[in-house]
């Protein structure tokens, strides 16, 4: 194939990929629907989580405010947790593969302090191989994976926030109907 035909084919593929909505993971935040929404983040998440939330809100188009009174939505970060478990071991009973799980717990209120979303959790999970000859490299991969999992959990949380942004507040009546 000649060079202009190859370039034309590459442009056509790029156009088809962008037309179908495909994008690289982490690009665009995936939290459409928060454009211009004033969000106050309550709670005291750790610095790394706060940075991920700030980035996710910025990418989604939300406007972060400094007080609940100035907010359309109050996103309360209740907590986060990570867990690692061994998936497989080698013949020397050393861990060969791990599963890393990151859990994020949150609530969502409207400007009047009414619950739009009761306490909820999102989970992000991935597996990785341990290199028995390079334990430092394995720890480094685990930390990189944790950053990705945290970012994925924040993206999933913001999707739920966007989905419940205009929801009716939770009352005893509609909570009982949902059960």
From TrEMBL:
- General function of this protein: Together with LptD, is involved in the assembly of lipopolysaccharide (LPS) at the surface of the outer membrane. Required for the proper assembly of LptD. Binds LPS and may serve as the LPS recognition site at the outer membrane.
Tell me what organism the protein belongs to. Answer: Alkalilimnicola ehrlichii (strain ATCC BAA-1101 / DSM 17681 / MLHE-1)
Output this protein's name: LPS-assembly lipoprotein LptE
Recite the UniProt keywords alphabetically. Cell outer membrane, Lipoprotein, Membrane, Palmitate, Signal
Subcellular location, record wording: Cell outer membrane
What PROSITE patterns would the database entry show? PROKAR_LIPOPROTEIN
Q: What is its main location?
A: membrane
Note the superkingdom of the native organism. Answer: Bacteria
Point out the gene that encodes the protein. Answer: lptE
Q: Which GO terms describe its cellular component?
A: cell outer membrane; transporter complex
GO biological process terms, semicolon-separated: Gram-negative-bacterium-type cell outer membrane assembly; lipopolysaccharide transport
Sample GO molecular function, one term: lipopolysaccharide binding
Q: How does it sit in the membrane?
A: Lipid-anchor
Outline the subunit composition. Component of the lipopolysaccharide transport and assembly complex. Interacts with LptD.
Q: Please verify whether the record's keywords include Transcription.
A: no
Which PANTHER family does the annotation name? LPS-ASSEMBLY LIPOPROTEIN LPTE
Which Pfam families has this protein been placed in?
LptE
Family recorded in the similarity comment: Belongs to the LptE lipoprotein family.
Q: Which Gene3D superfamilies match?
A: Lipoprotein like domain
